[in-house]
Structures are given as C-alpha cells and as structure tokens.
Amino acid sequence: MNKLKKIPVVSKELLFPFIIITSLFALWGIANDLTNPMVSAFKKVMPELSNMQASLVQFAFYFGYFFMALPAALFIRKYSYKSGIILGLCLYALGAFLFYPAAANETFTFFLISLWVITCGLAFLETTSNPLILALGDPATSTQRLNLAQAFNPIGSLTGMIIAQVFVISALRSDDYTEEAYKALTSEELAAVRENDLGIISVPYIGLGILVLIIMAIIIFTKMPKTAEEDKMSLSESFKRLFANSNYKFGVVAQAFYVGAQIMCWTYIFQYVDNINETLGMELTATYFNVAAMISFLVGRWIGTALMRTINPSKMLMLFGIGGVVCCAGAVLLSGMPGLISLVAVSVFMSIMFPTIYGIALKGMGDEAKIGSAGLVMAIVGGALMPVLQGGILDWGGPGFSDVKVLGFIPEVNFSFILPLICLAVVAFYGYSTYKKQTN
Fold it and tell me: Where do transmembrane segments lie in this chain (predicted)?
C-alpha cells in the first residue's frame, strides 16, 4: 500500500491529455441528464403521443450505446484512441445540430434519429475514453485514475439537469395550460405553441453541439501519448482471451446489473415520492430529492477515489455494494422520509461502481482491452431492461397507486426496490470474488 501512495495517479507529462480526455466524461453526463426529462417534455408539447411513444426517447438513447459500442471498438483497434474520440465527437455534434431541422419539421421521429446519432457518438467516446484513461499512467493506479476521471461525469449530469429544468421545462408554453385549456386552443394557437416549444427544446442541444466542436478542436491539436495497447493482435485472439477471462465476463454482467440499479433508483424515485405524498398527505418535490441523490453520487465518488489510495478497489467495490444493499433494504422496509432518505443514500454507494467494475474487468489486458471495452459499454443496455421489470411490479395493483401490500405491510412501490437491491448484491459479490482471487 505504501508503494501505491508513492505512485502518482497522473504524471505531470500526461496531465494535459488526462484533463482534456476527462472533459469528455462531463460531456456525456450533460447529454444523459439533459435528455432524461425530454420524455415528459415531448409528451407536453406533442399531446398526441402516448406514454409508450414518448418513452422511445430513452429507447433511442440506450439503443445507440448497444448498437455502436462494438463498431467503435473495432474502429479504434484499427486506427487509434484519438481517431475514435474525434469520430465520436463528430457524431455527437452532428446529432445535436440535427435538432434544428427536427424542430423546423416538427417531426418526433426526426428528434429520435437525432438522439440516436448523439448516442452513437457517446458510445464511441465511452468505448474509447475509459480504456485510454486506464492506460495514461501506471497500471497500479489505473482504477483510481478512472474513478477520478469519472468523478466529472456527475458534474456534467447536474449541469444537464439544471439546463433541462431552467431552459427547457420551465420555459415550455404548453406547460402553462391545463389539459382541458390546451385542447381548447385553436389550431393556429396550438401550432404557435408547438413551434415555440420545439424550438426551446432544440436550443440547448445546438449550444451543446458548439461546445463539442470546441473541445474536438482542442483534442485534434493535442498530442496523445502512445500506449501499450497500440500493439495489435488478431481479432479472433482478442475474443478468445476475453471469453477465457472470468473476471471480464463477470464484469460485463456486474456492469449490466449496476447500470440497471442506477437507472431504477433515479427513475422511480419520483413514484416513491408521489406515493409518500399521497399516503401521508405530504407535498414533497421529487426533483429536489433526485438532485440530492446526484450530489450524493458526486460526493461519494470523490471520497471513494481518495480512499482507493489505501484500499484495494475490489474490496472497495464489495463494501460499497453491501452499503447499497443495506440502503435499498431501507427503501423497501421503511416508510415515509426514512425510506426516502435511504433511497437517496443508495447513490453514495453506487458512485464508484461503474469505473471500478470497468477497471477491474479490463485490468492487465493488452490490445483486447479495446474490444473488451465494447462489452462493458454494451452492458449499459441493462439500464433499459431492468426498469421495465420494476415498472411491472408497480403495475401489480393497476395504474396509479393502490392499497396492495406485499407480505401484508410493504407498499408495492417500496417493494419494487427489491430489484435494485438484488442488482447491487450481484455487484458486491463481483467485488468479493475478485478481491478473493487477488488475496489468494
């Protein structure tokens, strides 16, 4: 451990490349949490959309990750990390700028295509940036280095949340009308409101596209150091090594369960708060608790990154996984504010999971890390699949909230968080199994 303390997380000669690559982690955080509220925004602006149709916003987003991760890995394997980053930023900017013609045409499908293109770019960035950060320094501090870079992701997420709330949600004219009043507007008035609101939705994306181009220009003129992964091996050999690596295979599974847990906790906190308001007669605002969860996530990641100077990453993952399980149990078993506080606290323990699983799964890999990175990015699709299962539990008693009590005393909303509990238990076991291998 003393030796680990003496090794710098980032050496001075690699500091600038590290900083500029780390800025990309904030960029995809902005995109993720700017897009999350767009489901409700499109539903308000285009009331003809069903809830299922509006939810295609998230489907388009996650499908882009799943679709493009492996092609991105193959691209950077043939060319370089820097080429992959530049192409990813090009796709990101293109998708953002496509919001302008989408708004002009007032076509929902056009918006979905724009989001899909953005996420194809994000898949390139995540598939490239994570293993590159691992390679920018001593292997002994690789996981800590990735946690440090990933700590800037929630900063981007908070920025995206604020932009969405201040510049989009609160500015929509369609939100100023009740459902009945909105339907009573003349066709000309409806057209004016629709044109205005779709323009509002497109503005932050266009601004984001400009920011992406600026960062891309900086990266183009930044000299990236050569890494050990530049040595090529055959594609079949890469797949053979990956499938023979139990740490990697279990890591992909753990990553899918982690992302599923994260999206469930951050999505269904709104239903959790609404149930408290309805059953206890309170007037809590779910958005505030969602922001509190994100701030907790950010604080947890900074603390976790510091602790990794003295604690083995696998052991840390195990301990944080156990902490997340305990907090989920609190969200299930406790009612009112104690349960809600437990749910917010889950984010503290989820904070280090994505980069730590990533670092453990890819540790010691050579060229196969480029292909391996794709599997870990494709695992993000867990965030699209797991929430559907939790929604099924919420619908046990029919739409809305019901008096259904699981085991006679647990509201179905509370009980639904048994799923993130199971997911985090899988993550904790992955930490335990890899730590056990390292100490044996």
Answer: 14-31, 56-76, 83-102, 108-125, 151-172, 198-222, 250-273, 285-304, 316-334, 340-362, 374-393, 413-432
